[in-house]
């Protein structure tokens, strides 16, 4: 027992003292050789032959040292090193296999890592926040709809609750801001005094907003994002103390956030530009959404509330307290009676809490995003699986080729364990190399993805995909999976050999297990086909949307959105700017027409016009409202069906007029021939606005229909009203150009700036860019699944090629025999091609069925109803696949067919 | 040289230990030469194997090594037996004698039956 211990101990120390011991033995051997030589010389031998004899008797030094090493070492460590060296040498000898294995595994692992990172970044809590797990969101509702708080309720909750520390409220707005001659508009947040304490965001410059800044009457202050500080203040440290104009009002800059903090809006996916105290809402007056500090306006809910759970307090206790406070408040300050409709208030407060980390993107998007994220991850997992099965296939094929070698080694006394270990080590070497390659790829892709992504509609999205620990663990898990699938299973398979038969048959008659591999290839093909089917659905949608004529010449428009109201320009000042801008623009190079309007009938997000309804005394129609300067129809390229367009006669005080779209006229009157008649119109009330009066308008013209709301949709009418009679505080400058709309958009922005440097342009760009309807979601999903599908397909084809080549090389003799017995070249070619194509065709059948199923499930998401099976697509992709598979099979098949029957037979 | 004896596993270790007891500290060459002499040149070692045995014995702490100078002024390691080694040698010798006695008896009986 003790001797066993001391031996183990000695082996361990020898591990660390290995080189030293080797040296000692080498010296011993030298001394030995010298002594022996001297003795032999003394016996009368001549020195040269004495030395030769001494060396002979001593045995080679190397074998002695080896014997010595075997005696002393913890053998598995040494043997592992030896196996790794062996594996490297063997891999170097088949560079094709190695290259293919490493690349396909690397791509698989890389894709998995990137997509996992992106998905995690998308559904993750906002970046730059300390201890997000302890933060609770408080909702003014208990169900799936998670509603906001009124100002009064938030303050009452803040004062009464005890279980949360740093209770804070925030609301997102889209302020305009300007300093040092740069004016911008972007998302910003109004926040209560404890907001930054709650989130644990330290200032990178100056200080953050504190409770004192959120007192009524406190001087207006602003915290800037890192980006705004860069762009407006050139990163100078004395930005603190300077003035920035927000919505036309002066604010003092007190600090800058660190670059990693992007705000809470959409979990930081849409970065916020600045943070203002709640108390400045009455000064900055953000439009819409019912921002109010009136403590009695308990039905105006606009604040999101969060708090950090105090140490030692359970979430249940916090929830109970919040509920109790809600009941108290119901007694003290009952809510106004419900108004009905989707935005109605409940009669009583049903407050609830939920972990902030549960929110994916935002309170409403999460329900869509989480399943989508899962689906994407599964799709990527499938691609990785394809990569792994590929490798498994290849290793199996190689294993078959190496049966003879393994059998000989077994016969020479190698243990099965050591053979399996060798094979596993070989697989590990490949896997590690593939993983390193994949991680390098992933890093490069993530760096590229980390920048701002312009998603159109003037909105910038910032993903902060990080290779965080979880992603790394995921990648390692994927690697291990690959290792198990690709290494151990084939290794066990390859070493379960009937020795005698394997040696005797010299490996040739042992036909590799083709059936299993055939299933693997069929599986790969169907997975890639499924992904491609989904991709085609989305890409089809993108194509349909792009091809569709929206009724407006978006491709010839340059647009710039200006929110005069938000910047607290009164109507008179705004009209002066508009007049000067239109005058200047009409003289601009390449400008055909210029006009200003309250919005386009269609467009994404903030481009949409306020709506309304016409024909209130008749069948009424919901409409898009376009209040515009006279040239609007000509600028947009909307033709007149009857009557006249808006013109210079339609000024303030003149007869109130309207131009209806054909559809609006049809719905209200049943026919479009209504010029000269009266129609009742009422503008929709936006949150925070009073009701608008019903107006009676004279119809002076009928305009052709356009898409409304979003491209591809024509379910609403449009009314065109003279801007002179219906001023709107948020306006869109539109320029129709004969030239490049991108350059014209730049001209538009420059013109506006030269007229009023303080005026912030909320967004500007080409019509296609800002309002072009191709939905981002379809684009992203389509290209993602398309890439993954193509990728999986390439992998599957590469796998097919690899396996077939191996198979053919194993069957050279059989093929030679066939040819010697009279098979023609063509017959052999056909044989191999048939074997190669069979699993591909099977895969296509299964994949097409799965793809049709997927499309059926996705169909409701699309406006133009898609056929369940898209035959054109199926035939196209199917044919493409078969052709690609033919190519993948052809090379090995030709090699087989060119086998020289004589050579093959001679070896028999 | 005629046919030489194949050594049974473990017997070389025993010979080395015996040699060290008989002769005191010795270097590898000395041990090898002594083994050959004592065996009446019946055993001809691949002399390298003696070092495998020496390392094995060191690991069991039955012998220890010290640097010294050989007759021809080379640095060489001199091995000597430890207390642990002496005990092991006694035990192994006893064991060996029992085994050989048994073997001898068994083999002799067999050759008688053959006759």
What is the compact description of this entry?
Chain A is α+β, with helices and mostly antiparallel strands and 908 residues long.
Q: Would you write up a description of this structure?
A:
The complex is a heterodimer of chains A (908) and B (115). Chain A has 908 residues and is α+β, with helices and mostly antiparallel strands. Chain A is built from 26 helices and 26 strands. In chain A, the strands form 4 sheets. In chain A, strands 1, 2, 3, 4, 5, 6, 7, 8, 9, 10, 11, 12 and 13 form a 13-stranded mixed β-sheet that branches. In chain A, strands 18-19-24-21-23-22 form a 6-stranded mixed beta barrel. A 4-stranded antiparallel β-sheet of chain A has the order 17-25-16-26. The radius of gyration of chain A is 38 Å and the shape is globular. Chain B has 115 residues and is an alpha+beta fold. Chain B contains 4 helices and 3 strands. A 3-stranded antiparallel β-sheet of chain B has the order 1-3-2. In chain B, strand 2 and strand 3 form a beta hairpin. Chains A and B meet through helix 1 and helix 3 of A and helix 2, helix 3 and strand 3 of B.
